[in-house]
């Protein structure tokens, strides 16, 4: 029956899309038990956001690169270089903090232009270009810093990753402003989801039942408010979380609702078909790497602010964490599949696992093994889904 077939297809697709969220809830619950509740303690939840915010920022750009069928191995070195440029200007030269921020962003743009030129115009594979970039920008970092660390940054600069908004509207033993912002976010998500549902109904596209839709909204609202409750009982709303939320909203809209976003998915799905359809693949590739450079510079600013220093070894292995976040979040190895929200959840899974294992006192070597196994399983799941889809045709 057509109706039954559509329902089964809808349920299967929803389960596949929701699998990462189910896995995230399971991992949080598991490590909450294993750490005796310490994982979800207010101070630890705050520290979790502060410690892994720069990886999540990198994951946003990385998932777009992967969806287009590329990879970027240089982002860790770009994080180090942009932080070094900020440090030299603000610490050594004594310039205002905002000059260091603008200089870091400008450096990220130049890096993106450099790599975008070789990938989009010359046609060198991104793997090779960014592998070279990893070496080039790490070397430049050493030259800029003179192979020494610089610290401390001005107090205003430190507030980027270490500042909080709290006490604006009071609260007895908690920050009411944090809860208010979370409530507004939940309402905004609910309204946006309802509008999306109604648009699908207008075009006779399959949607979940109203009961399932309501349960999904309630579940998300409960998770968000519980998270906000923990933040409200710690130090309030981190400034870096506001920055991260803004990036997620902006890039979520870009990838889902803009022509540029549709072109990225078209290229990753079938490059030849995209070119025949009139997609300017050179332009898209160029802008992708410029965008990655900007996001890497933002991550560099946040990391330098968080560590209150610029170090020659800053950002090492960050590219692998960002790539892992994208793949665990559902990005396909072959391109064409992946979402910003999925990459964020994938990054949070890695963050919760790392933080939980640190609390438990597990050795770093064992932590690396566990994270590697999780990455392999995530990619294996993607491969399995593709084979099953092809077999059902």
From TrEMBL:
<keyword id="KW-0812">Transmembrane</keyword>
<dbReference type="Pfam" id="PF02653">
    <property type="entry name" value="BPD_transp_2"/>
</dbReference>
<feature type="transmembrane region" description="Helical">
    <location>
        <begin position="211"/>
        <end position="231"/>
    </location>
</feature>
<feature type="transmembrane region" description="Helical">
    <location>
        <begin position="117"/>
        <end position="137"/>
    </location>
</feature>
<comment type="function">
    <text>Part of the binding-protein-dependent transport system for D-xylose. Probably responsible for the translocation of the substrate across the membrane.</text>
</comment>
<keyword id="KW-1133">Transmembrane helix</keyword>
<feature type="transmembrane region" description="Helical">
    <location>
        <begin position="237"/>
        <end position="254"/>
    </location>
</feature>
<keyword id="KW-0997">Cell inner membrane</keyword>
<keyword id="KW-0762">Sugar transport</keyword>
<protein>
    <recommendedName>
        <fullName>Xylose transport system permease protein XylH</fullName>
    </recommendedName>
</protein>
<keyword id="KW-0472">Membrane</keyword>
<dbReference type="InterPro" id="IPR001851">
    <property type="entry name" value="ABC_transp_permease"/>
</dbReference>
<keyword id="KW-0813">Transport</keyword>
<feature type="transmembrane region" description="Helical">
    <location>
        <begin position="284"/>
        <end position="303"/>
    </location>
</feature>
<keyword id="KW-1003">Cell membrane</keyword>
<feature type="transmembrane region" description="Helical">
    <location>
        <begin position="20"/>
        <end position="40"/>
    </location>
</feature>
<feature type="transmembrane region" description="Helical">
    <location>
        <begin position="173"/>
        <end position="191"/>
    </location>
</feature>
<feature type="transmembrane region" description="Helical">
    <location>
        <begin position="323"/>
        <end position="352"/>
    </location>
</feature>
<feature type="transmembrane region" description="Helical">
    <location>
        <begin position="52"/>
        <end position="71"/>
    </location>
</feature>
<feature type="transmembrane region" description="Helical">
    <location>
        <begin position="77"/>
        <end position="105"/>
    </location>
</feature>
């Amino acid at each position: 029956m057509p109706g039954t077939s559509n329902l089964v297809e809808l349920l299967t697709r929803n389960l596949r899309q929701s699998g990462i969220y189910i896995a995230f809830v399971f991992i949080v619950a598991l490590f909450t038990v294993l750490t005796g509740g310490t994982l979800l303690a207010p101070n630890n939840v705050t520290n979790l956001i502060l410690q892994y915010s720069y990886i999540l920022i990198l994951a946003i750009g990385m998932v777009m690169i992967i969806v287009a069928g590329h990879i970027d191995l240089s982002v860790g070195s770009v994080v180090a270089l942009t932080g070094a440029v900020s440090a030299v200007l603000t610490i050594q030269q004594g310039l205002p903090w905002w000059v260091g921020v603008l200089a870091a962003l400008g450096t990220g743009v130049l890096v993106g232009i450099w790599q975008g030129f070789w990938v989009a115009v010359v046609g060198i594979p991104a793997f090779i270009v960014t592998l070279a970039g990893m070496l080039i920008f790490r070397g430049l970092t050493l030259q800029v810093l003179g192979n020494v660390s610089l610290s401390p940054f001005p107090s205003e600069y430190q507030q980027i990753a270490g500042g909080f908004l709290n006490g604006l509207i009071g609260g007895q033993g908690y920050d009411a402003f944090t809860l208010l912002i979370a409530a507004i976010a939940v309402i905004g998500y609910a309204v946006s989801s309802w509008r999306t549902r109604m648009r699908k109904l207008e075009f006779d596209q399959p949607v979940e039942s109203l009961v399932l839709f309501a349960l999904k909204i309630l579940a998300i609202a409960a998770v968000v408010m519980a998270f906000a409750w923990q933040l409200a009982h710690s130090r309030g709303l981190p400034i870096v979380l506001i920055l991260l939320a803004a990036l997620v909203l902006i890039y979520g809209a870009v990838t889902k609702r803009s022509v540029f976003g549709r072109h990225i998915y078209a290229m990753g799905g079938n490059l030849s078909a995209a070119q025949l359809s009139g997609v300017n693949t050179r332009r898209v590739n160029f802008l992708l790497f410029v965008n990655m450079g900007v996001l890497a510079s933002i991550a560099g600013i946040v990391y330098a602010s968080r560590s209150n220093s610029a170090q020659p070894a800053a950002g090492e292995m960050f590219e692998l964490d960002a790539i892992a976040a994208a793949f665990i979040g559902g990005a396909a190895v072959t391109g064409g599949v992946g979402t910003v929200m999925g990459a964020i959840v994938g990054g949070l899974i890695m963050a919760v696992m790392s933080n939980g294992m640190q609390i438990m006192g597990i050795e770093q070597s064992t932590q690396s093994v566990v994270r590697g196994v999780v990455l392999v399983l995530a990619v294996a799941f993607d491969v399995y889904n593709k084979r099953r889809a092809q077999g059902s045709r």
